[in-house]
Amino acid sequence: MVTARAPATSANLGSGYDTFGVALERPADTVTVERASETSIDVTGAGAQYIPEDPDGNTVGAVAEALEAPAHISIDKGVRPASGLGSSAASAAAAALALNELYDRGHTPKELVSVAAKGEAVVSGTAHADNVAPSLLGGFTIIRGDDVTRVDADVSLVACLPEVAVSTRDAREVVPESLSMADHVETVGNAATLTAGMCRSDPTLVGEGMDDPVVTPARAELITGYHAVRDAAFDTGATGVTVSGAGPSLLAVCYPEKRRAVAGAMVEAFADAGVGARAYQTRVGRGATIL
Ligand SMILES: Nc1ncnc2c1ncn2[C@@H]1O[C@H](COP(=O)(O)OP(=O)(O)O)[C@@H](O)[C@H]1O
Ligand SMILES: N[C@@H](CCOP(=O)(O)O)C(=O)O
């Protein structure tokens, strides 16, 4: 029997659609695997009732198949599904690490990124790796084709999760299919600024680099209270705010001493918009581990 823990993640960071991601120190999923002749799954924890136990509908089923590693897989969800916090990816990353160990497959965590991404195709229609990469590797990650670049960063974050669900599949449908040259230039400048900020663990550069004129405005419309919550975070000291992943969570970057105030203001602004929410005061964290 092998147990692995894999963290929630926040993908895109505004300017890095399908490219950037960070591991969050918390929350996380825990996955336990035991050898079996065919794969079966049970799910407990946050939002378990919304997650299929049929291996064909669960990200971990695709991972077991890709590794040719049938197992009984128990998932304890710390990351609520349809959160924008890489819930489906956290299970896939933990399962990939645990099954690799259980069957002694010998893959490195970096090699497991493409395996875990197969799970994402099951739920969102695309094998985007921008959640599974940071969940497996930790830190700040950049996806380029099949390549992953990883950077250590120490940056404080607030992830504010409202009590509504947005499916990644639906939120991918509102993404524009093309962009103007002006938006392209702005996005490249912001993405480069964010990357420099991560390399320096500089919340000001990271926050400024999160601005995105293309994907985020389209997705903000799917989140009740988005603009008020964003304003509240900036008013209390956030250096940048964006939609986390496909939403509905919002991600704020800040200096460590502002984290509590930013978290409180975001929850309050959601409440004023009639939406319950909780905030994780977190930071860029490490990747999946065997327990
Ligand atoms: N192991 C899993 N953990 C979470 N969600 C899963 C899992 N397997 C399948 N799903 C499905 O994936 C969807 C949630 O994934 P997604 O929309 O990408 O949200 P998130 O941003 O939280 O990852 C839900 O429909 C859920 O039932
Ligand atoms: N790049 C993807 C990221 C989805 O993240 P999730 O946490 O919402 O699953 C996208 O933006 O669609």
Automatic annotation (TrEMBL):
Keyword Manganese attributed: no
Protein's pathway: Amino-acid biosynthesis; L-threonine biosynthesis; L-threonine from L-aspartate: step 4/5
Gene3D superfamilies for this protein: 3.30.230.10, GHMP kinase, C-terminal domain
A GO BP entry: threonine biosynthetic process
The reaction(s) this protein catalyses: L-homoserine + ATP = O-phospho-L-homoserine + ADP + H(+)
Alphabetic keyword roster: Amino-acid biosynthesis, ATP-binding, Cytoplasm, Kinase, Nucleotide-binding, Threonine biosynthesis, Transferase
Highest taxon of source: Archaea
Residues binding ATP, per UniProt: R80, P81, A82, S83, G84, L85, G86, S87, S88, A89, A90
Residue span, GHMP kinase N-terminal domain: 59-139
Annotated InterPro entries: GHMP_kinase_C_dom, GHMP_kinase_C_sf, GHMP_kinase_N_dom, Homoserine_kinase, Ribosomal_Su5_D2-typ_SF, Ribsml_uS5_D2-typ_fold_subgr
Keyword RNA-binding: no
Entry-linked Pfam families: GHMP_kinases_C, GHMP_kinases_N
Subcellular location: Cytoplasm
Catalytic activity, EC: 2.7.1.39
One term under GO cellular component: cytoplasm
Residue ranges occupied by any GHMP kinase C-terminal domain in the UniProt entry: 197-271
Xref: PANTHER family: HOMOSERINE KINASE, HOMOSERINE/4-DIPHOSPHOCYTIDYL-2-C-METHYL-D-ERYTHRITOL KINASE
Protein name per the record: Homoserine kinase
Organism per entry: Halorarum halophilum
Taxonomic lineage from the root: Archaea, Methanobacteriati, Methanobacteriota, Stenosarchaea group, Halobacteria
